[in-house]
Amino acid sequence: MDLKTFDEFRRSARRRIPRVAFDYLDGGSGTEVGLAESVDAFERLRFVPEVLVNVDRIDLSRSLFGRDFALPFGFAPLGLTGLIWPGADRFLAETAVDRNMPHVLSTAASTSIEDIADISGGKSWFQLYVAADEAVADDIVDRADKAGVEVLFVTVDVPVPGLRMRDLRNGLQLPLRPSLRLGLDIATHPAWCLALARSGMPRFANIERYTDPSASAGQLAKFMAAQSSGRLDWAVLDRIRQRWPRKLVIKGVLSPGAAERARDAGADGIVVSTHGGRQLNSAIASIDALPAIRAAVGPDFPVLLDSGVRSGEHVAKAIARGADFVLLGRLPMMAIAGGGEAGLNSAVDHVADDLRRTLALLGITTVDELAGCQIPS
Ligand SMILES: Cc1cc2nc3c(=O)[nH]c(=O)nc-3n(C[C@H](O)[C@H](O)[C@H](O)COP(=O)(O)O)c2cc1C
């Protein structure tokens, strides 16, 4: 596989998948300045490297929530994966197992908690969108428990959906409404059509059971939208904390106050995230929010970071600024869209190689030592 970098996969994905799917993956909210800023903020940071250190043996392993992972990064939860590349959830879950990395399955993914738990040998992580209907919310939590999910991520930065202009312009909805433009869009992407023929139409595999079995994809999508809850608050979170017996992580925190409150409410960790620039367009970049959050929660509370991470250097910067672990959203999915399963493996190799090289050039040999690296502000 010749493709390695995010930009290379992005160029290939633009050709290989229908526009409606590419824009859904690639786009952000509003004018997309927040999306651009989430990456630019990483690019602005500079290290002060050390020299004359033996860096022959570099160790990229990292422990989190009681498990030892081969790398300090994993795959963030993505919804509607089956639209971007049919079968992608399985690629992500299988690759995560093969490479000993974590993968977080989304409530809005196209494959069920139970199917992914089978692939992950009972070591899966799951992201919860808290449904407006309490019975549905509780049932999803109970299913995750029964499937042996180790870590539950509760996403809290979607009180309303972000204003994704590209999706609005493309008329993104399920089922895809037939039109000449859409027909041409799909017909001109044969590899994607073939994958669709193999894996089937994109579904909301985790929530379809809560609707009438004869519900159309359109009714399901409406149900999904109606279930996103603007009522999620600290009291609801308390209820979920009481119900969920294992590790609980709050995803989508950007303020030190909310980070402290999450810790005090019994969360086992947080994800500092702008949802990949898909929610509040003018939100602070997660890498810029991180130092104050780390200072607020103290050195021992698990803090993960996502949004804007495009390389191993970015992973190093996130950990140097205070993250324990990093999640990649668009990067692995762009790799699948641009290069299939081989693309995903190539992308992971490239991020890992880049991280290894960055550590060597900084004069350190373990991920832990990143915490001592200087990034002058
Ligand atoms: C296409 C797409 C779908 C997403 N779906 C979800 C989701 O269902 N649940 C969730 O918590 N976050 C979702 N996110 C946000 C990601 O989990 C993650 O926070 C974000 O992608 C990180 O930014 P990055 O793409 O720049 O790495 C989605 C992001 C993208 C790009």
UniProtKB/TrEMBL annotation:
InterPro entries: Aldolase_TIM (IPR013785), Alpha-hydoxy_acid_DH_FMN (IPR012133), FMN-dep_DH (IPR000262), FMN_HAD (IPR037396)
Active site feature: H275 (proton acceptor)
Binding of FMN, residues: 77-79, 106, 127, 155, 251, 273, 306-310, 329-330
Assigned keywords, A-Z: Flavoprotein, FMN, Isomerase, Oxidoreductase
Pfam families: FMN_dh
All copies of domain FMN hydroxy acid dehydrogenase, residue ranges: 1-377
Transmembrane domains' residue ranges: none
Gene3D superfamilies: Aldolase class I (3.20.20.70)
UniProt GO MF annotations: FMN binding; isomerase activity; L-lactate dehydrogenase (NAD+) activity
Cofactor: FMN
BP-aspect Gene Ontology terms: aerobic respiration
List of residues binding glyoxylate: Y24, Y129, R164, H275, R278
An annotated GO cellular component: plasma membrane
Source organism, top-level taxon: Bacteria
Record-stated family: Belongs to the FMN-dependent alpha-hydroxy acid dehydrogenase family.
The protein's name in its UniProt record: Isopentenyl diphosphate isomerase/L-lactate dehydrogenase-like FMN-dependent dehydrogenase
Source organism per UniProt: Amorphus orientalis
